[in-house]
């Protein structure tokens, strides 16, 4: 009999419907996403790119209520490794998303570091390794952001290691966690991105469990990933090749990840994100239905 993992709250996100941008003709309309994510059996969603879903709290609340949906988190992108000069522009972006996230009753803000390689064109934007000074800017900046988001909006930030950013591999993630205050900075563990960058999600949960504040559930196709790594393919083109695949066909196995997370003894969101930008409009819903069925078989 499957163990019931009662500390894990499952949801999905616009990302699983091929949504990467606030407005893009290749993406499904927001109302279709809301209809289909509810039809697939999910009750929690993320906001996705700011401006994709309605940004008026009253309107968005009404749209969610009639579909029995709730928001688990908002998402922001940052480039805090560039130092204090980017703080004001960063905060202008963060406060918009944080205000809507707070208004929707969510408690988490997912923070993604900026890309060093353009995710569409593969252009190298910055060196893939940070200098010691940039590491200090990144860690101190994230602590400042965590403090200000908590003080102003009552939200916890969870920083998301991501392919083609400076926070990707096990070594980088551990360096970041060891250099930041647990009271101010949590981690959003994305199982797919961490595997993409060579990490072991179960090991990270068992080693740094007190820092895990949020989960993204995702798998990678190991054969496509091997080619992506061998040929230094950028993340965007890798997604178009299908590197992020439908569970349970890829790695890591999600059941051990969920069981390890359950053992932490805290309530955690586990939000499904299967990167598929761009994708045919009729593709996401059947995948979402099958993924929700699979996760139920895992006990969530």
UniProtKB/TrEMBL annotation:
Source domain of life: Bacteria
Pfam families reported in the protein's UniProt record: AP_endonuc_2
Q: Which SUPFAM superfamilies match?
A: Xylose isomerase-like
Q: Which InterPro entries match?
A: IolE/XylAMocC-like, Xyl_isomerase-like_sf, Xyl_isomerase-like_TIM-brl
**Residues covered by the Xylose isomerase-like TIM barrel domain:** 34-297
Q: What is this protein called?
A: TIM barrel protein
Q: What is the originating organism of this protein? A: Streptomyces thermoviolaceus subsp. thermoviolaceus
Q: What is the lineage of its organism?
A: Bacteria, Bacillati, Actinomycetota, Actinomycetes, Kitasatosporales
């Amino acid at each position: 009999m499957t163990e019931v993992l009662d500390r894990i709250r499952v949801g999905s996100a616009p990302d699983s419907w091929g949504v990467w941008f606030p407005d893009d003709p290749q993406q499904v309309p927001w109302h279709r996403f809301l209809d289909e994510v509810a039809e697939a059996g999910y009750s929690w969603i993320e906001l996705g790119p700011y401006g994709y879903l309605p940004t008026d709290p009253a309107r968005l609340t009404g749209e969610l209520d009639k579909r029995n949906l709730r928001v688990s988190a908002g998402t922001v992108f940052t480039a805090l490794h560039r130092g204090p000069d980017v703080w004001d522009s960063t905060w202008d972006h963060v406060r918009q998303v944080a205000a809507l996230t707070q208004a929707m009753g969510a408690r988490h803000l997912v923070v993604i570091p900026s890309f060093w390689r353009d995710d569409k064109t593969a252009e190298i934007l910055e060196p893939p390794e940070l200098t010691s000074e940039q590491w200090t800017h990144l860690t101190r900046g994230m602590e400042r952001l965590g403090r200000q988001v908590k003080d102003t909006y009552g939200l916890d930030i969870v920083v998301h290691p991501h392919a083609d950013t400076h926070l990707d591999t096990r070594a980088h993630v551990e360096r970041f966690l060891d250099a930041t205050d647990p009271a101010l900075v949590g981690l959003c563990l994305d199982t797919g991105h961490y595997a993409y960058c060579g990490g072991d999600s179960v090991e990270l949960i068992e080693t740094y469990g007190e820092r895990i504040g949020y989960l993204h559930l995702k798998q990678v196709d190991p054969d496509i990933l091997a080619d992506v790594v061998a040929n230094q393919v950028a993340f965007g083109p890798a997604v178009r090749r299908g590197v992020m695949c439908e569970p349970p066909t890829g790695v890591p196995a999600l059941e051990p990840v969920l069981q390890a997370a359950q053992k932490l003894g805290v309530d955690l969101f586990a939000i499904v994100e299967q990167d598929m930008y761009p994708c045919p409009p009729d593709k996401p819903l059947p995948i979402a239905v099958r993924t929700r069925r699979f996760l139920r078989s895992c006990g969530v």
